[in-house]
Amino acid sequence: MQKPAPESELTRKLSIAIETYPIAGRFIISRGAKTEAVVVTATLIEGRGAGRGECVPYARYGESVESVVATIESVRDSIEAGAGRADLQRLLPAGAPRNALDCALWDLEAKLSGVPAYATASFEALSPLVTAYTISVGAPDEMRAAAAKAADRPLLKIKLAGEGDEARLAAVRAGAPVSTLIVDANESWDEATLARRLAVCADFGVALVEQPLPAGRDEALARLARPLPICADESVHDRASLAPLKGRYDAINIKLDKTGGLTEALALARAAQDMGFSIMAGCMVGTSLAMAPAVLVGQLASFVDLDGPLLLARDRIPGLSYEGSTLMPPAANLWG
Hints:
Blueprint: E1 12-29, E2 32-46, E3 49-55, H1 65-74, H2 76-80, H3 85-91, H4 96-113, H5 117-120, E4 129-130, E5 133-135, H6 140-149, E6 155-159, H7 165-175, E7 180-184, H8 191-203, E8 208-210, H9 220-223, E9 230-232, E10 251-254, H10 256-259, H11 262-274, E11 278-281, H12 288-298, E12 303-304, E13 322-323, E14 326-327
Parallel strand pairs: 5-6, 6-7, 7-8, 8-9, 9-10, 10-11, 11-12
Antiparallel strand pairs: 1-2, 2-3, 4-14, 13-14
Helix pairs in contact: 1-4, 6-7, 11-12
């Protein structure tokens, strides 16, 4: 019987796909609304193995579908020549393009070796996770109705937008009196109203507030007596952005599209824990393929927000399994 070719002799091919998935209703935050998730998927085929990774281009960070595809194409020769995850960290900066390739390399390694990605990442096993479920920003009566519909979920993430947020929060709490609430302001608050709005959140039993002030203009958080934990989102991307957050934030939201993949996400999570930050595992609105590697980050997190597929009208097949708000670890035929 002929032996398999050594990995160094295998030919690797990269393919890139742009895919669109409709959102159930609309996903609305302080910066605008969207009705579909447009994702970029990188697939690496080597020998009998195929690895996939998905990213979501995000205009907030200067990304578009076209720019993400072009950036992935710019390193095609290196990737097809056998560049690994360590090489990739040098080839591309943090961001969505590197995420798609990094996660595809993790998946490919698992498929070729037979060793699950979680084992390579030094986890003995993956546990199910309870994920937040997102309530989009809207009029108070709309948000109350949405919260009431999701009131059986243990953790709700409430999108806010500035003016009128107190009424929105009161409406959500009336609709879901028992659920734990996370508030995400998406940079929409200002220093003048910060203390009052945080006090209102505390009064309604909010467990965490994400990114109340704009990134780069969040110095006031260091001067404020915080009545509840504050989580950085837009202010944190990778380990290079971590040190300035000390004293301003209590937690960080780790998203693979910001870190540029699972490799940096795990390194960031462990560095943040060493500095005393709590971890939130977050996501953009994408399919189960984007959520699957983030489940590994979720193993280190105090809060998990990996509800992307729950917000879609249809997910890719095979997808992740959700039992209510409980997210099951990914099967190998999806990723890892």
